[in-house]
Amino acid sequence: MEVSRDWKDYEILDMSDGEKLEHWSNIILIRPDPQIIWKERIFPEKWKSANARYNRSNKGGGFWEYNKKLPESWQVHYKDLTFNIKPMGFKHTGLFPEQAVNWDWMINKIKNSGRKDIKVLNLFAYTGGATVACSYAGASVCHVDSSKGMVAWAKENIASSGLSDRPVRFIIDDVTKFVQREIRRGNKYDAVIMDPPSYGRGKNGEVWQFENNISDLVELCSKVLSDDPLFFLINSYTTGISSKVLENILTIKLKYKKGRYASGEIGLPMKESNLVLPCGIYGRWEK
Q1: Burial class of residue 147 (count of CB atoms within 10 Å of its CB; 0-12, 13-18, 19+)
Q2: Which of 165, 170, 204, 240 is most buried, judging by how many CB atoms fall within 10 Å of its CB?
Q3: CA-CA distance, 62 to 143, in Å (whole number)?
Q4: Span 86-99, mean pLDDT?
Q5: Exposed/middle/buried for residue 231 (C-beta within 10 Å: 0-12, 13-18, 19+)
Q6: What is the per-residue pLDDT for 163?
Q7: What angle do CA 74, 79, 80 make, to 5 degrees?
Q8: Does residue 182 carry a pLDDT above 90?
Q9: Burial (Cβ within 10 Å: 0-12, 13-18, ≥19) of residue 85
Q10: What's residue 96's pLDDT?
Q11: 202-232 pLDDT, tens per residue?
């Protein structure tokens, strides 16, 4: 497992009974997590300091319960990157801190490539964690997401990180349709990143289901890779899918391209303990 241990503005303070106690800069939140199936609280006193808790509803979804007033938004910093945090309607805050291990990996790949004018395609790009990282590393990025609100949030993150002058193209569209158009246009990219949901709908009602669609999408994206690509990264939070499945799909769809294939889990450490929270999986190909 690759564990993100370099955060200063984010920490897991404790984990118990389906919930994690998190420190986001100066804000403490309690949010649900299905991986936390043990009952014990290691630091019970710390839970009293929470600003807010997300409570799941038996009817689906849930709601935030506030113990202390929260700002409408606030910022967290990861190394030289800055992200805007906002509590959302479905437990999220607009950032997945475990992805920092992938940001570091992408930054190193781009900076150490010895190449200029690297073009990155970021699909299901959400609020742009990977977009910010790749832009910071010096790449030009095409950021694609079907949500207008998420794209606007990604623009805020680019601006907050001082990268507004960098070449970032923001696209609000269904990712499959966008890639199909890029194939017809003959546009090519040196790196592809995707973080597809388990289930979702595009802006025109297009249905996405991970198990049914991921293989075809990877094949489509193989057709927009440049002649000398740098990497291809798939992230997933889909329950029941092994990371090895992602590696297998890359191996098949990239037609056994020379390079290194890898897969595994990513996670976050808990402060003052040896516990690590599993948070997702990845599959990678790199030159």
Answers
A1: middle
A2: 170
A3: 29
A4: 93
A5: buried
A6: 98
A7: 80
A8: yes
A9: buried
A10: 97
A11: 667 778 789 999 999 999 999 999 999 999 9
Which of 56-65, 85-94, 271-280 has the weakest average pLDDT? Answer: 56-65
pLDDT score of 208: 79
**Which of 34, 81, 12, 11 is CA-nearest to residue 238?**
34
Q: Which residue has the tokens 């993100």?
A: 4
Report in angstroms the alpha-carbon separations of 165 from 10, 68, 125, 140, 177.
27, 37, 19, 11, 28
Q: Please answer whether residues 217 and 224 qualify as being in contact, where contact means their C-beta atoms are separated by less than 8 angstroms.
A: no
Token code pair at residue 54: 């997300």
For 91-117, b/e burial (b = at least 16 CB within 10 A) is bebbbbbbbbbbbbbbbebbeebeeee
- Average pLDDT over all residues of the chain: 95
Q: pLDDT digit string (tens) for 229-271?
A: 999 999 999 999 999 999 999 999 999 889 999 999 999 999 9
